[in-house]
Amino acid sequence: MTIEDIDKEFFFHPFTQLREHQQHGPLTMVEGHGSTLTDTRGRTYLDAMAGLWCVNIGYGNTEMAETLRAQTERLPYYHTFASMGNEPVARLAQRLIAMAPGEMSKVFFGNSGSDANDTQVKLVWYYNNVLGRPEKKKIISRRRGYHGVTVMSGSLCGLPGMHAGFDLPLPMVHFVRAPHRLWEQQEGQSEEEFVRDLADELERLILAEGPETVAAFIAEPIQAAGGVIVPPASYFPAIQEVLRRYDVLLIADEVVCGFGRTGDTFGSEVFGVRPDLITVAKGITSAYVPLSACIVSAPVWDVIASGADKYGVFSHGYTYSAHPLAAAAAMTNLDIIERDGLMRQAKARGDHLAERLRAEFADHPLVGEVRGYGLLGAVEFVKSKDPLTAFDPALKMSAAVVQRARELGVISRALPASDSIAFSPPFVVTEDEIDEMAALARQALDDVA
Ligand code: PLP
């Protein structure tokens, strides 16, 4: 049996068209170096997505391998329940608090962005229970937002595909529009008016639900999976004004933006977000080992800590919370990013990516928008620019382009919510590799359009 046969026979793939998979089988990668992957047949691909927006330092980093070997020999695992600790995780928590924006106080560790956002909601609920406000539990999220796949974090997603078949979203989750200029900004509306419109929509929803029932608002600084939606500069300040007015906490989901993808440490710093809680994952270890974290502000922590009087033990945590291998990997990953100036490099490469994507795609009649920020880019396809008309979703233009680009040797990702293809390469990507990614993606469009 080939590895592909074994895969088809036994492996239940996540986020996969299961029937098609049974026919076509997997594309199995065996090796990676920098931004290049190699499959079982020896074919190489430029990974324009850094895996799933996460292998920021690139594949095959030997310093990470050495850290993992050394920590495995020293202490591969010990739990952190009931006041037990381990060295790498205490140091990582200290480092994250020093790096995080705003008045952050404590770090709770998990294993994925999904479980971290799930934890954030539990923290918010616990906080309001400690404060004696048991009715303040609703969460507001945004259309096109992506926050994970657990029952709660899947509910927080503003992507219909994440709910279908799973009886989601849970009823305490409500949605407002995304700041997606292409589709949401009315003709003749200035940016200021557009932002006001979005902030007013949020305020109307809070008032309609009753501010005493609304606990938190969750947002990615840049919506990644929803289409690389970059907000106007005044968006988050306007949104925050509304949230503060009604005592609604802000959870910044920095799973993609965190640790340099925007060119700054956190997307919150770029877009003026002042979060009460921050979710990180992916780039914290460049995905060499699973790790996520909830970074908790001092005022929220103070209330949660005082919950001991009412509830005793804080009964939440995972076997793998604060795993020493993951914490050691995160420390080395952050060392590499700082020492090699990879955040600055991400910004510079991002500027080059934006320029190449605009050059290859902006004038194409089927391209509605080329957008991005830092080392994040997207090209959105439309049936017509004037009048602006989307393709029939069944046509899946972005999926066709991504499929063809893969045959040409570039791995991009289709973002169906906005019929876009995404670019989020490792920070170590070279300018030549970016040129090739953009040129081959353009060739893919020409081949399928
Ligand atoms: N939040 C954001 C912004 C994400 O992009 C993702 C994953 O893509 C998640 C949360 C979920 O993370 P995970 O897949 O690690 O559960």
From TrEMBL:
Pfam families: Aminotran_3. One of its GO terms (molecular function) is adenosylmethionine-8-amino-7-oxononanoate transaminase activity. Keywords: Aminotransferase, Pyridoxal phosphate, Transferase. GO terms for biological process: biotin biosynthetic process; gamma-aminobutyric acid metabolic process. SUPFAM superfamilies: PLP-dependent transferases (SSF53383). It comes from the Bacteria. CDD domains: OAT_like. InterPro entries: Aminotrans_3 (IPR005814), Aminotrans_3_PPA_site (IPR049704), PyrdxlP-dep_Trfase (IPR015424), PyrdxlP-dep_Trfase_major (IPR015421), PyrdxlP-dep_Trfase_small (IPR015422). Belongs to the class-III pyridoxal-phosphate-dependent aminotransferase family. PANTHER family: ADENOSYLMETHIONINE-8-AMINO-7-OXONONANOATE AMINOTRANSFERASE (PTHR42684). This is Aspartate aminotransferase family protein. It comes from Actinoallomurus iriomotensis.
